[in-house]
Amino acid sequence: MNHTRIILVDDHTLFRKGLAELLEQSGQIEVTAFTGNPDEVSMLLHAHRPDVLILDLNMPGIDGITLMQQLRAEGHTLPVLILTLSEAEDDLARALRAGANGYLLKSMEPDEVVDAILRARRGESKKARCSIR
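Request: output the structure for the sequence above.
Response:
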């Protein structure tokens, strides 16, 4: 399998850039684009054709779950992982019910995030989710 190509959407610039660099260092993931602006996501999906999309749960203006639902309505079918600080079980349940392929905590170790991304690409959505600790 070639590098897994992802787009990362998070409104915190430092976190977004840091995570992108950590993921690239894995040697298995290529961050083809990242943005803090949810309005750019559809255009980025068309331009970069990623294997997996990572969306922050809480962003100004729109949350990651609503954005994922809008993208699905536009016909985007790629795996989506929700990334968040929230360990609330109702957030996890809401994301998975809405069709997310996984739920990643920002407190996870980088290798756990890489593993979840690779599993999501392979279609192992139930295994890609992070359990609430």
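The radius of gyration is 13 Å.
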